[in-house]
Records
---
Amino acid sequence: MDDLRELYQTMILDHHKRPRNYGPLPEADHEADGHNPLCGDKLHVALQLSDDGVIEDVRFEGQGCAISRASASLMTEAVKGRPEAEARKLFERFHAMVTSPKSEPADTSELGKLAVFAGVREFPARVKCATLAWHTLTAALEGGGRTVKTE
């Protein structure tokens, strides 16, 4: 188990230090901002949807803790190229995993690399860091450019 935990920590640190899909997306047609006042994380998620609802491109910008930035990075990798409905279902599975009781095994099925966040559920304050990018993505998909907060 320690080897697995170390692998997860390594992946989270890698995505924090070298986030994927980081930067502006000038051709974005959906955007939203997210803020976690408890931790100070601030993210901007921008995406471009095709006419048939596929997330053609997604990027994020902002500052935050390692969990927040890594989650945003891995989220963008996971949802790029997926239909909007699949991205929403992936968020539901991710959210269920990180909020499940730590006394039960985490359901990481169909989450791929996102399973690295299963350990976050042991630290309730960090769940908000891990889900901020996802809530911000959802707000962007809904439109209106609103700001979501985890408080």
---
Amino acid sequence: MNLDISTSMKNILVALFLSISFLHAQVSTPKYTVSEVPKKMSVKTKKQRFYYLLVPPIEKVYKELDLQYKQVKQELQDNNASIRSEKIIRLKKEYKVSSDDDLLKALKPHPRSIALAQAAMESAWGTSRFIREANNVFGMWSSNVKDNRIAADEKRGGTRTIWLRKFDSIEDSVRAYYKTLARGKTYKEFRDVKMATDDVYLMVSKLDKYSERGEEYTKELASMIRYNKLTKYDQKEENE
């Protein structure tokens, strides 16, 4: 009788161990990776993979930036204009602005739907060589020889090498992208509109300088947001 109980307990423990091992493997092994693109993916699978890889880092960076924006906004409201903390002074220098209003325009993150649409377009839904080899989601160029970067396959004008930045992670790429739109003189009108309205389609219309395709690029972005219902990722803001 004791032998039977002992054997039964061993069987239970073995089964439990196998179950835990299986669950651990499921948790520790990612469903998709950036560097590996499954062959012969359906459109549905390609988009599933893209959202799996891009939604979490965009969500994380957005929340970080939004929290910083709200904290700075509160600090600016609480303090006299003549009293500015070292943090505010540092941020103005970092974002290349001089006024409080321009700092807030720079710090306020634009909607997730726009980031996702640009990520999808610039990385061919997460399958381009630049995202696979350099974690470069948004096709960000590099003109600094000190940057960690990779060369594009095609040369500009047939002779000049085009360099793209190489990032340590997708999250780093997302963070650099947000900062580019927050600091560049090219995107001043975009920041003005972002501050004045929640209309993502109006914001997108001011991103014509992001691509050499100009207005055609912004129309495709708007269409991508609408067709894929990407504004659902912005609805989270209402509950935060």
---
Amino acid sequence: MAQWILECPLCGLRALQIKGGGVSCGSCKYEAESKKHMDLLSIQSFSRQCPTCGVEALVDLQKTGVLIHPGARFFCFACGNSWSPEKMEYCPECGEPRPRDEFEELIICRSSVGFYVCRNCYNKIFSPGRT
């Protein structure tokens, strides 16, 4: 994960910082809540829950067409964390993007080959009391 400084929509300088659920420019003092800034970029509909901060501000940059950094694919507009395609993938069960280290192997029966699902889905499938 890395944090990036973005281009400000007001002054055009790379001085926009993301933290605490908002964005602010160190040059022109532009400020906005993360959700309002995402609306400005027309990417709010792409947002998912961030695995780091829990805010629905994580976007798949490949789907939005917004380029933050060539190595980043997933970016959180609330906390500023980003992940490369090698560090994050979509869970085949719930369809949510999750860090790869949060996946568990799911084996349906002893003779089948397992596949990997996110920890949340794994825990739902194997929760006590489930039939």
